[in-house]
Amino acid sequence: MAVVRERRHLKFNLRLSLPEPSDCCPRFPFPLPQSTTSSAASATISAADLEKLQVLGHGNGGTVYKVRHKHTSAIYALKVVHGDSDPAFRRQMLREVSILRRTDSPYVIKCHGVSDIPGGDIAICMEYMDMGTLEALLKNGVVFNENLLAKICHQVLSGLEYLHAHKIIHRDLKPSNILVNHKMEVKISDFGVSKIMQRTLDPCNSYVGTCAYMSPERFDPDTYGANYDGYAGDIWSLGLILLELYMGHFPYLDPGQRPDWATLMCAICFGEPPSLPEGTSENFRSFIECCLQKDSSKRWSATKLLSHPFVSNIHPKSV
After folding, report:
1. Cβ-based neighbours of 271, under 8 Å, separated by 6 or more
2. Active site amino acids
3. What predicted TM-score, i.e. pTM, was given to this entire model?
4. Domains of the chain
5. pLDDT of res. 299
6. Where is the Protein kinase domain (predicted)?
7. Is 304 annotated as belonging to a binding site?
C-alpha cells in the first residue's frame, strides 16, 4: 500500500507509558518493542510519538490507521471508534476488547493496548499485518492453490482450536476478518460479535455476523440446531472461506451475484453443496465435506480437522 505523502500526528489527548508485561491487552499505555533502549523504555511517551501513516479502512463508526512509533519505528494498526458512533457498535468494540484481553495465540491478532480518549472515542492498538486480509488478496487476483490453502487452513484451525479451548466462538469468520502478512502468517481478527460460551447458548440468539457465512443451524435452529453448540458454526464458515478462495467467488452463488438474505438462507439451508472443479484432490474434497455437513453434530471439530490429511503434514515452521 502506498503511504500518504503528508504524515500528520494523531490528535489524541492522552499520554502513554509502559504497562505491566503480564497484561496481554493493557489499557493504554501500551508496551514498547523489546528493541527499545532501557532509557527510552522507562520514559513516558506522548501520543504525538505515534505518527499517522495512512488510513487502512473506515466503517461502522470507526477508522483504522496504520501508525508508526517515531522513536522505535514500530508499526501498529490503531482502530479508533468515534464517540458519536452507533451505541451497538461501541458495545461490539468493548466486546472485542474483552475477548482480546483473554487471548494469547500466534494465530489470533495481538492487542497492544486500549484507551478511552477524551470526547468518547476508544482506541485499540493492535498488531499490524502488512498484506491486509484474505478478501483483499482475493480481489487483487492472488491464486489460492491447494498447497497455499492448506497452509492458511492450518493456521486458522490452530487459532480456532485455541479459541474454542478457551470457550470463545467467533461467529463472524470470513475472508475480511482473517489478516495476513508478507510471510503468509495468518491471524484471526474482529471479535465484535464473538461470544464467550457459558453452559448453554440459545440458538435463537444467533443472528449475528455476516449471513453469507452463517451455518444452517443459525438460520434454522429448529431443523438443524438440535445439537447446536456454537463451535461448529465457526467450522462451517471456515469451509466456505476455503471454497471461496479456491473458486474465486462465493461458492453458493454465481460470480458477481449479490443476493438478499432470503436467497442466501435458501441456498445454505436447502441448496446442494457447492461442486468443486475437476482436478481437485480427494483430500481437499474430503476436508470440505467434513466442514460443510448441514447436521452440525457431524462436523469435525478444529482439533480433529488438524489431523485431517489435507493439513496434517503442515508444520508451523513450514508455514
Report:
1. 252
2. 172
3. 0.81
4. 15-127 (3.30.200.20), 134-318 (1.10.510.10)
5. 94
6. 50-311
7. no
